[in-house]
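Cont'd.
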Amino acid sequence: MSDAIKNVEEKNGVIIISTTGYFNNLAGDAVLEVFNEKMESGSTKFLIDMNDSKVVNSIGVSILIEIIEKLQVVNGVMAFTNLAGIVEKTFNIMGITKYCEVYDSVDSALEKIS
Amino acid sequence: MVPPISSKKSIEDLENQLLKKNKVLNEKYLELETLLDLTNTINSLDDLEKLFFNVLTLSSSIIDSSKGVVLIKNDVSNIFDITSSFNIEEEKIKKQIFNTRSGFLNKLNKDKKSYIVGRKDDFNHELFDSKKALINPILNNNKLVGAIILFDKETRDGIKNFEKNDLKLLEAISIQTSIAYQNIKLLESLKKSNKLNENIMSSITTGIVEINLFGEIEFVNKEALRLLNKNEIDVIGNHYFIIFEKNNLLIDLIQKVEFEQKRIFESEFNLKSKSKKTSVNLSCSPVFDEGKSFSGIVIAMDDLSKINKVKSTFKKYVSKNIVDKLLENENSLNLGGEESEITILFSDIRGFTSMSEKLSPTQIVNLLNKYFQSMIDVVFKFNGTLDKIVGDELMVLYGVPLKNENDTENAVNTAIEMFKSLDKFNSKIVKDGFEPFKIGIGINKGKAVSGNIGSEQQMNYTVIGDTINLGARLCSHAKSGEILISKSVKSVLTNDYKFKEISPIEVKGKSKPIDVWIYQHK
């Protein structure tokens, strides 16, 4: 597993991917790899916990958009939690938040999407 | 109606073009927002490390660089230290010395412009484990004080070189960073000056009180609190009317300064506090701001109680002139024990024992007190230091504790004037029916050890040595109306004072007779 992925776990049918560090090309690709693997196994609900990723760049964001597009095809769900202010602002401007929800905590996210 | 296929395709193309344009616009919007965030963030920071970390993360994020580093010049060594890094292994680079003698910092120092590192540029990509770099100067008064370096612009297809737009964006960030850096440096320097000021203010022995335009106490140092017998918490922010309520005269002075905007000095001012009065030298000065407008008052107070104590103690032994000189220049005072050249004068009353037998003890004390007072006035007139009075004998020093050029002349002048003063004294006491006093004086000059001599219980400033013994012997040889001086005294006199050489005299403790000169009062 890449250094950018801190943890991957499944709870109530939701795959929680916790990232760490700069959410850039490398981190985005690492998340994409986990996503592809889990999607092949039938998972369609994903929660990205970005508590330890306080900085993102546009390449990281474009990979996230790629993942969201793939999920839309299968009517899947993508959500984010623990976003730093600047990250949430970037997601808003880049339009990600139009297609997925942002939650304050893992528990509140699981309550809604599981 | 369904549009024809060709029209459908043009609509799809148009949609794609719009989406692309929208994406570009969103990216520009993000750039602007990030720049705005960065400006707000860096202007609110007062810590350089935080500033540079924020600059690195936000600029990396906005420019899509994979990592970055900030180097800042060490004021002492002129080496550029790694002050912040982002997504980079510092272990690899922290032992590398960066300076302006060579490499990218040399170019940056010369051009003071941002640049994208090209193939021909001298840059060690291996060191940073990078392929591409974008370098920006941090300037302070147009001098290079640091650099922001971003590495490897990321794309979905891998690393590509930075573009002109990235350069422009980082330049804008760099300008903001330079301003924030200058502000933080100014703030640090201001904090340092304030700290220094506080240290000075708390250590000086002058009490300082600063009053603002509204009459509120804005600053007070430790000494002023001691003199006012108050706590800082009770003073700061309060109006001077309240703080100086027991000192109406001081309130009047402050009001006078407020009105006239001129400095006032009051010596030996009685400052009243809760439980005591302290004598202070007080100065009350107006303060003006840069626009030369009146902005408050500073009061400075020097406690005179300690000085007065020294003065009153010393004045018993030395003249006011010497006390003032000693207080002006503490270094001139040596009380620790030192061998130096001194002149010593002894005088005593001839036939005092037989005279005292005819008088009552009260009469003796009264007469002696008046006699000594008139003699000591002469001693002080010529800057002598009264060492001691033993019975009817006076011992006076010249040259210690303060040296004067004409110490010996002063001793001789003292002796001559003592006789004149004695004449006046005698004429008064004769009228009262007492016998006139008769005195003899001896003066010697030479090396002697001076200092505080005695035990812990009692210690006196005095002199010891052979010079002193010979002075005392000369005095005991002098008859009434005579001044006897040694050769060492005679040799430095510029005036002959009508001294005549007489036959050498034998004194106790000297194997050979001593050359002596005599002055006889009329």
